[in-house]
């Protein structure tokens, strides 16, 4: 009796650990694919490592898979590749001094644009209303256009 | 008045960069290994059963590591240059036979000449990855302390040899 | 014989372009009616000869004339006939000829539909377009001759790139080029207004429909490109922020700003300087795109084979056209009087904010696209800038613009009533908020970013509906322009909702499957039934069968393929998609791993079709706006008296 229960328990343990292993292999697969989509194929015309058919891409994918299986983190694998191929291999440019303008630029532009906008709007609000025409100017206009209709404000 | 010149100024700046860009190759990947130690490895040697090569064997010498393969078309363009260089005996040339078949490789050397002291066989390309190889041929100039000093991407030409490689090698030997 | 005739026709067209680009401009400046009168016939003559040249090239492709280098490089006798004809624009030379053809079509349209414009204005507009045409024709004739001979002729051709052997090839480039080139009309208007010194509301009024039409074509062109790469390339994505994609997106962003800015200049006479600048920028970005794709400075899947000599020519042309325009702008615009006055909260200020935001977004895309080049040119580093960068930068920049789009139509001109607008929008705001908070739960996962995206999309649609309701209460008859605007805004909302849903909830599995094996994903069961060899007209395919069921009921039998085209021998993935309004089921083959087993990629993408659906709505909105009564018929008659006032710039 105890032996049967023990046997069943052991089987359950294997089952559970098997399921866990399967779940984590799915997660690893997901992680691998996500990482490969952030990496650049070095010999292609602008494709990710995940999508490339090139031989070198296949070799690098194998490397990534091996390192994932060995328990390395995303950062460590990225470190491995950039040590050999430089930042070119990353589609997400790391924030360094030389990419500071790249990352800060758009938001600086936004701030500049917003500031310019506010300045222009303030100035417009304070702008003088168009001066009404002098009587002789008005006569010229009426001769050319005919008598004024309505309030003359353009719609 | 000055504000209206801004778009023109920005445009001219961009044009300047684009003009420079016309002379650049956007697909060339420079090596981050320049100035760093040449990665260690232990590989079999082409045509010498049982012999294994480690780059540490070359300590104390300034040498060239040339990555080649029999299936590589541009290597054929580069090969006469290497053969010439090997005859002048200025610096040792070693080969890294990359993702190749042993028989094809040996046949190729017999046909086109063998400038190499020896060729290490990197059958699966792993060592190539360690060296940041992404295309063939590529050549590394390694100094007496085992540090990579220069990498040529693509075929080695007489011009590059004259202007970059040989002067650098001479300076390193001192 | 025919290729030589085509070549000769191009030379004649170039001569006509030379005449068109010089004499009418001179005539308008010096008041020589004989010269200004040349503009229209010259434009029409150009079309005749360019269309003839284009037909010659198309005929060479159709008839498999492999003594023409272009045909030998890009076609093949086994290529099906519709692709043989589409191959006419499948190369650098051919696509440039298509560009010039489109430009001739637009020039013809301007020459025909400009009856109410003064002759000297038409002369200037066609003159400027003629100069652009001359530039491209020279480029063709001197560096990229499509009629170059290959003697002795090849036995057969090198085949059209298999990726291009698709219906997408028939529609995407022509639509895209109609858009790119169409912005040259607004550009020519702007330049002629600068040359003339006359910058009044009528300039904006005349430019508007032309710009809307160009924008509409560009929207469709980009949409087709995105959809094509989605079903063709097998990776399941629809936008990669590739340099060439960005090259088409930047003119679109500025073009959108331009349409909005033109509305203000037309209605209120304000933003004249800004609108002129946008008109110059929109076409400049089209030209810049042409450079980027053909010069080799950037790497792209779409890039044509290049030659540095071509790059230098285009860059010189670019510098001349854009530099010249911006210099002219700086010279003339310094003296223009400021426009009408408006409050901080007004339709004008909303539209100005829209312009600024779109321009900043465009600037960000330009920065990201050119940054690798900048660093490389300075010798600093070699980096890559890809989707992770653009996604993280572009979305926060566009969010404010999208929020404004919901509010804008409810704010009055000159002085808006913020409280009234807020009151009217409260329902839209509430519905959008509730939707954003609870809809994610229906998909099983709540995320802040998802909720935000849904909020933006629902908000824009809600704002459009609110504006419609408010307007209907005032006047039950709404004009096409207003309806078009609402439809286009709704289209943006739909687009944003679709993108949010796809990015948040798409699921994917990439795995090895043996024949007979099944896998489940997203409630669907996929059974892989193996792969068999199937011959095609000019390829060999390994066709897989994947049977899709849901709860036992059959959904689809999908047949993804891996093709090897006989001539070029490179493998191509052909995905199999089950299209549905609420989701696409997308299956593609990876590699054979032995024993009949293959790696198979399965995606389930909720609502992805609405990404392109939203774009179609936007384009339809543009079409609707174009069909407004004010543009019909009145184009022939003299313009309303108010617009005839040419207010000379305050000099």
Task: Describe, in plain words, how this protein is organized in 3D.
The complex is a heterotrimer of chains A (155), B (174) and C (651). Helix content of chain A is 65%, strand content 0%. With 155 residues, chain A is mainly α. Chain A has 2 domains: 13-94, Helicase, Ruva Protein, domain 3; 97-145. Chain A is elongated and about 115 Å long. The N and C termini of chain A lie far apart (95 Å). Residues 150-155 of chain A have low confidence and may be disordered. With 174 residues, chain B is α/β, with parallel strands linked by helices. Chain B is 37% helix and 21% strand. Chain B contains 5 helices and 7 strands. Chain B has helices at residues 6-21, 73-88, 102-112, 126-130, 158-173; strands spanning 43-45, 48-53, 63-68, 93-98, 119-122, 138-142, 148-153. In chain B, the strands form 2 sheets. In chain B, strands 5-4-3-6-7 form a 5-stranded mixed β-sheet. In chain B, β6 (138-142) and β7 form a beta hairpin. The termini of chain B are far apart. Chain C is of the alpha+beta class. Chain C has 18 helices and 10 strands. Chain C has helices at 2-30, 33-36, 39-62, 69-74, 81-86, 92-112, 119-143, 167-196, 201-233, 243-268, 272-295, 308-333, 347-377, 387-407, 418-442, 448-474, 480-505, 609-626; strands at 507-513, 518-521, 524-535, 539-550, 553-558, 561-565, 571-574, 576-578, 583-594, 597-606. In chain C, strands 2, 3, 4, 5, 6 and 7 form a 6-stranded antiparallel β-sheet that branches. A 4-stranded antiparallel β-sheet of chain C has the order 1-10-9-8, with helices on one face. In chain C, β3 and β4 form a beta hairpin. Chain C is globular, with a radius of gyration of 26 Å. Residues 634-651 of chain C have low confidence and may be disordered. Classes of the chains: A mainly alpha (155), B alpha/beta (174), C alpha+beta (651). Chains in contact: A-B, A-C, B-C. Chains A and C meet through α4 and α5 of A and α10, α13, α14 and β1 of C.
Give Rg of chain A in angstroms. Answer: 34 Å
- State the largest interface: A-C, 49 and 56 residues
Structural class estimated from helices and strands of chain B: alpha/beta
CATH topology annotation of chain B: Glutaredoxin
Q: Give the full name of the CATH homologous superfamily of chain B.
A: Glutaredoxin
For the termini of chain B, the CA-CA separation is 61 Å
Q: What shape does the CA trace of chain A take?
A: elongated
Residue fraction in strands of chain A: under 5%
Largest sheet of chain A: none
Secondary structure tally, helices of chain B: 5
Widest beta sheet: strand line-up of chain B:
5-4-3-6-7
Overall helicity of chain B: 25-40%
Determine the number of helices of chain A (DSSP H or I, runs of at least 4 residues): 5
Which CATH C-level class of chain B is it? Alpha Beta
Name the shape of chain B in a single word.
elongated
